[in-house]
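User: Could you walk me through two proteins back to back? I'd like the raw sequence and the structure tokens for each, with a short line separating them so I can tell where one ends and the next begins.

Assistant: Of course. Protein one, sequence then structure:
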Amino acid sequence: MNKGMIKVSVLYPNNETGNFDMGYYCNTHIPMVKELLGDALKNATVEKGLGGGAPGSSATYIAMGNMYYNSIEEFQTAFGPHAKQIMGDLPNFTNIEPVIQISEVLI
């Protein structure tokens, strides 16, 4: 990712009652998001939590989706019209309320 890009992270906290279908997320949800957001979305990555900082500890997040844009305005313009459809798909792969963070890539 290039310096100055905007990274939108969707973080799914790991908890005992949470369910997360990684196959659906990677094979259905993310491709749908890519199609809906079009050229505004420069790149997307998915991460699966494996563990915490201490040996044997659980990962803080069960999964993380990251989307990269040239600007916040490009993200908002692309995401806004499709927000209801994208967010409406969440129950198809998880019962976990995601945490959203928008960041600027510095390095």
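----
Protein two, same layout:
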Amino acid sequence: MKKQSLQYVKQLMETENQQLAKLHKIVRESLEEESLLSSRLQEDSKQKAPTYGERVADKVATFGGSWTFIISFGGVLMCWIILNSVFLARDAFDPFPYILLNLVLSCIAALQAPVIMMSQNRKETKDRERAENDYLINLKSEIEIRHLHEKIDLSIVDQYQHLCEIQQKQLEILIEIQGRMDVMAKKVKG
């Protein structure tokens, strides 16, 4: 009886070790799949190189939306006005209503606005792709977390079942020991 009980407990322990090894393998594979998804998404984003026009649009938008542009443009406007109003007052190439200046400003605005919009559209497309990639990774993570929860729950149920079986065997051994002690106690009294 004693050898059978020990053998049964060893068998339960081996079964539990095998289950833990399977769980470790599943978790490792899940982590590898996650890294594969991340690297694949990074490769996709690296493959799309911007065209020459897109790079120019980005540079114009970056410069057009900077304090350097605002200050330098304000300086050019002030120089234009001072040059035409003070230094060339009689022979100004653009007298007071500054019609030529208005034309230049309108042309700059007409050309700069679409270029900035192209850059913004491209950045919006990149942001949308990044958001989709983040969504895919989050979705995969959520699914993996659910799978891990299920696996842990199954593992806990299996462990509980094994512990109950071990406890049952221990109770049987204790009953057998109690029976032997009762027999021994009767022999000592008798």
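Residues 171 and 177 are 10 Å apart (CA to CA).

Let me know if you want the two compared in more detail.
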